[in-house]
Amino acid sequence: MIKKRNIHLWLPNIFEFRGGIQVYSSFLLNALQTLPLSFNIEVFLKHDSSLPQNSDVLIDLDTQFHFAGAWPLFLRSPAFATQILSSGLRQRPDLVICTHLNFTIAAHWLKRLAGIPYWTIAHGIEAWDIKRPALKAALHEADRILAVSGYTRDRLLREQDLSPEKVSILPNTFDTDRFWIGAKPSYLLERHQLQPEQPVVLTVSRLSQNESYKGYNKVLEALSQIRQAIPNVRYILVGQGDDRPRLEQWIARHQLQDCVTLAGLIPDSELCDYYNLCDVFAMPSHGEGFGIVYLEAMACGKPTLAGDRDGAQDALCHGALGALVNPDDSNAIAQTLIQILQKTYPNPLMYQPEALHQAVIDRFGFDRFQQTLSHQIQQFSNLIQPLEVFA
Question: What does CATH list as the number for 186-363?
Answer without folding.
Answer: 3.40.50.2000
